[in-house]
Design a protein that fits this description.
Blueprint lengths: L2 H31 L22
């Protein structure tokens, strides 16, 4: 594999990684904004406590 081909391959990998990262960040941001608890809902935002099951 020559140096020119390696440069193109490295650039393609970097671009693919950036694209995947950005899509995951944007999807996460949309999901949080559209969640059941928005910023003006008045809830505490603390997670619900689960009951411990004793065997």
């Amino acid at each position: 594999m020559n140096a020119e081909l390696q440069s193109w391959a490295a650039g393609a990998i970097v671009l693919a990684t950036v694209a995947i990262f950005l899509t995951r960040v944007l999807k996460g941001r949309k999901r949080k904004a559209a969640g059941s608890c928005g910023s003006s809902c008045g809830c505490s935002g603390a997670p619900a406590k689960s009951k411990a099951v004793k065997g």
